[in-house]
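Now read the record:
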Amino acid sequence: MAVGTIPRAAAEELEIRTIISTNAKTPRQRATVLAQSPSGEKVDRRVRKTKRQLRQALTTLMLRKDFNDITVREISELADVNRGTFYTHYRDTNDLLRQLEDTFLDSLRDINVTVKRQDWEGATYVYLEEVLTLCSDNADIFKALICTNNDLGFQERFVSTLRNQYLRSFLAQVCRTEERIRDMYCVYIVQGMLAIVTLWLDTGMRETPEQMAQLGSDFIMRGVKGLR
C-alpha cells in the first residue's frame, strides 16, 4: 500500500475493528446511555438533561469570555435552571469544568483499535477517524477548552491520552529505532495532531473527519518511513 493511500474499506478488508466501551456504541453516544433501572429512568433522564444544559451553558460562555470571569449565576441563567439545581450537581464552576473535561476524555479513552494482519497503517487511519469524529461532534467543547481559553490542564491530558493510548504501541511495532527516538517522534505526532485539530475546528471544519484522518495518516506514515 502506498504511503498516505488508505482505502475506505480498510477496516472491513483487513478486519480492523473499533471496540467501544460497553456503556455506549460510539464515543459520541456516551451522553445518551439510558439508566439500567426502568423505575429510575425518568429521573435519570431529567438529571442528564439538566447536566447537559449546564455543560452547554458553560461551553457557550467560555466561547465568549475567560473562564475565570464566569459565575454560577450566569451559567444557571443561561441554562434556565436555578442556582440550587446547579449546586445539586456541581460544587462550583471548577467542578463543572472538570467534569466536562472528564466526560470528553473518557470518550477519547473508549476508542480502542485492534490490528489484525499487521496492517498498522490501516489501523492508524481508523484510530484517527474515531478521534477526529469525536472532536467534530464535540467541537464547541474542544474550541472552548483549547482554542478560546487555552486550558493547559486539559491540553496536557488530551495529549497524554493520545500518546499512551495507541501511538506508543504503533511506533514500537513499525519503527526499528531506539526507544528514545520513538518517544521523540510520538511527542511530535501528538503535538502536531493537537495543532491540526485546533486549526481544523477553528477554521470551520471544511474537511470531513475521514479526510482529516487520511491526511493525518499520510503525515504519520511518511515520518515512519524515514525512521525505518
Summary: The chain has ten helices and two strands.
